[in-house]
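Hi W.,

Here's what went into the run:
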Amino acid sequence: MTDIPGLPSRRSFLKASAAGMALSGLALPASAQNAPAPVPLDQYQPDYLTADEWAFVMAATARLIPSEGDGPGALEARVPVFIDLQLAGDYGTADDWYMEGPHDANAEPARGWQTPLNPAEVYRQAIPAFNAWCEETYQAEFAALEPAQQDEALTALQKGEVGLPAEVRDFFTILLANTKEGYFADPQYGGNFEMQSWVYIGFPGARAAFREWPTRHNVKYPLGPVSISGERA
Amino acid sequence: MKTFLRIIAGLVVLGVVALLAFIFVPVQRSAPATDLAADWQPEPGQGEYVMHASDCVACHTSDEGESMAGGRAIASPMGTIWSTNITPDKDTGIGNWSYADFRGAMVDGVTPNGTHLYPAMPYENYRLMKEEDLRALYDYIMTEVPAVSNKVQETKLSFPFNLRFGIRAWNWLALTHEPGFTPTSSTEAETRGQYLVEGPGHCAACHSPRTAFMSQDGITASDESFLTGGVIDGWNAPALRGAESAPQQWSTEELALYLATGRNAHSAANGEMGLVVEHSLQYLTDEDNIAMAAFLKGIDGADVDLPDTIAAADHRAMEPAPADAAGEATATMLTEANPDISLGARLYLDNCSACHFVTGKGAPEIFPELAHNALVTGSETKPLISVILNGAEVPGTAKRPMTLRMQGYADRLSDDEVAELASFVRSAWGNDAGAVTAADVAAVRAAGAGH
Amino acid sequence: MARQEKKKDVVIVGLGWTGSIAGIELCREGLEIVALERGHDQSTVPNFEYPQQIDELKYGVRLKMMQKPSQQTVTVRRNDGETALPYRSLGSFLPGNGVGGAGTHWNGLNWRPQPEELRLRSYVAENWGEEIIPEGMNLGDYPVSYDEMEPFFTHFEKVAGISGKAGNLNGEIQEGGNPFEGWRSEDYPMPPTATTYDSSKFQEACLAAGYHPFPAPAGIASTAYTNPYGMQMGPCNFCGFCERYGCYQYSKSSPQTAILDALKMQPNFSYRTESEVLRVELAEDGKTATGVTYWDHKAGEEVFQPADIVILSSYQLNNVHLMLLSGLGEAYNPLTGMGTLGKNYAYQMNGGVSMFFKDENFNPFVGHGANGMCIDDFSINQNDFGALGFIGGSYWRSGTFNGQPIRNMPLPKGTPSWGAGWKEGIGEWYGHAMSIGSHGSHMSYANNHLDLDPTYKDKHGRPLMRMTFNWQDNDLKMNQYMKSQMEPLAASLNPDVMQSGFKGLGAQYDVRPYQTTHNTGGHIMSANPTQGAVNKFSQTWKAHNVFAMGAGNFVQNTQYNPTGLVGGLAYHTVNAIRTQYLSNPRPLV
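Here's what came out:
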């Protein structure tokens, strides 16, 4: 296995995973204990994303929520898997949205989603456009840049300085939103691996039972999270 | 009805040889305890009411079928038993039956051609019904129930269970009591309650234990073991009397509310009792449900306070009960939600405490209490495991229309986890019942929902 | 050729709160009733069951309880000069879907309007003169008074199962309740829910400032509860999954907990789901309706359902749309002021302050949608409109309602929105913030109205409804006033960091961020046929056998969440149908 350029080394990823395991202890339910360990991210076969897109999403989410410091990063939380599955599903295809024309992609942002593209198509068109901008600016595509350059490029993307076509101008907005969704959503969607993000901030997940707690003022709720499937940490 | 399978097993004990002696002796029907005038007429609605009180519909109606047209399948290892069509259709129902024929079935368990009914039909109890009620029921079926042509599949059990004359021997042991009702209660209400409980309500069919021959051990109030609890197909029908009886801890009003609505401050009726509430008890008057509650409360000699009505208030807020003294330690431990609690406690917080609360007391009329709950602490663990895996449902009734459903946790919890959880609730809040094993859980899981 | 169903006495369009109320009350009159529901059927179990419902991504973010824009939506523009564009993905407001409607996914805040709010034009005229009413504001009186409505508010609160503390019992002010509310004939059916830490801090600060805190009126059960239909609620456990979710605990007031099982038991009631009403059919003389035509999604065909009475009880936007499509009135023209359908569309003007306390723990996931303490010291009947320069008011509330981290992650200004700084920020601040919200009135204006879009069509080929809406100075001034009053109160709590979010003058309507699903008006009540679309009994002026229920009746929006007024009006309407209309069908006014 070779390390993907620009990503935290495989060793640091494994280390982060081991930390995740330690957090969740031995309390996994039998269903989870019997579940096969998920494939490492660099062996993951995306449902929607192409190899280039996958490399981009890996690299970008690794900067949006980096691994350094306390708490899991996007890669430890397997956020790229979440994004791939979401784009492959009815979010990616905007099944629930009104997508009839005519479209005015140049409408003021406050008018809402007006591009004719669905989110999956926005990723598909925006990633090469952004990579082209990176090539032009840094002479390398995004995934190959140094972390500091990646941060700089993402900042430019966020500020609208990259000059993306109007149809994909919301790319950064949805990329960041999807990254945070994958970080905090129930693990059944592929991200928030082993509920590490919930453990980090102290959110008890799907427990949803606190009748004794409203009157326990200024006492930090101590118990770790449970997922919808019953996984415990 | 599930009792029947074990009744059959009891039959075998008697031996086939002994049966031969009375195969060919003609069957006799009991004489009525009261002679009614030939022109006696029931009150309007009396017969339908008796039908509800006797819960005919539950067994004699199939899931998608017309009321009382039979065809409800009862699976058994010996074959399927099909309930019969009791509408007045002349070809496929009981339209050709005389009153004496009908009475013979209700009181002696014998059909017009002399065939013995399988004792899934509770003639042991219907035998105690008043002549007036039997007549009214007959009149109702013959004149008001629409005739439905529905040829029900014949019940064909394998040898030796297909030999219905064997039941005759069993009847000699089971039908030792005279037909008709003998009041032994002290008040008018309790006497009415006694009648409904003993006779049409056939409560003893489930709530009395069984003899070695699987006949009801305790059919009337004068029997010591009457309503001291039974076991049906791995489910406890709890004792309704005695110091250990959970329902005896309830007030008469709570007991009556349970009968009328399937729910009260402590418990909720699911499974077989849910069906009784749904098909029978909800149709009875408040007076009668209160009468039954009064009889049950007074059965061991306690004084009984009679409420006027059931669920009378226009609207009502009911505070959930705090933990009792026996439950306080558990409640405190669960409230603290310390990460190093036992797996059973953790599973309780993750899956159960939302509704049943750390107190194990639940909430009145909606979330049953688990502390000192007969289903939780019963000798049989299958019901508790089944509820955890498959959920439970309390049917809506006229007074409490909401169908209360608890979802099952079969997908969320492994056998080991269910065992830990069940063992925890059987020992929390002062509950003192034995542990459950993963193998117990696996067996219930394998049987699937609906068992 | 449309299939034709057997005629019914009553057809109900939409089986949410008002449709359920109409159904159960008219069933008791022995009428044959059918309800048509566009969406799917749903019950607490299995549709809202634990743990599947506790899924922020699916319901909180992907909005799977809601109306899908692909199914039905509107176009939006901010003034008559703009081209309206479709509201393609949900943002600013979230209409519900399926049996129970928005009543399944609301927060549970159940208010009555103040008496003054139902006669606001007269109240303004009497105290300050009509000259303070700004140009373009369609300020009006409701054609019903608070005193007329009081028994119906009380009854709805019993049915819905509301927890709270009365502040005015038959004119006597009650300690600990809201002293500025209208009189109540009875106290709330349930006591208030428990007070969380943030609420108690807010309460203390309010008392110190001389304000009058009281528990929020909550359609959230504080105890076990049985309502007048025998329907039941279980005590809330503060799971925090109210808004956007169905309640798995039977704790939230909803058609499911309050009415539906009792209604379904009635032999003369039936309902059909996935039955989307396309139009109300009028008789040739145009004075009555003959029934409704709907699209049967299961059969894939149009169906005509004849009925003697038509009750429109779908969501406000959909009611107005259906009325516009069916010719149940003339469309409102803001230039001439003529026409009534689509008139007085209004919304809500909200703001708030967040406070961060690095050493205090708020457990933000412990809460419920209607949690908290409130004050009404800045409400409509407390504000001197003449001196303040606006007409309106707001109630303030503080109480945890959900701590779900995808959507509820308040961070001090200056925290990066991504990267190492963001990750550090969420670790440092999650669970250490509280907020106070201002929930304010929204007046009606000529600019803000609803009509049919000239360009965009729905799946049935019908024009989408077009919303013309923008924020107006009067309400923005009100909001800025609340900011000026709330910030000092928030500062008195000595937070480590605090920050405000109040729209200021010049703010333009942005359809993207969620604001509120309190869309009101469009088929407003009026004392005469020239002013509104329905009379005081929600009976359309156009066709006397068509009744239009819901927040579309609001002359202007109140400072409160609308459900209490919607429920009260529904009982008021149904009472009129039962006692006045059935015996002699005619225009009741």
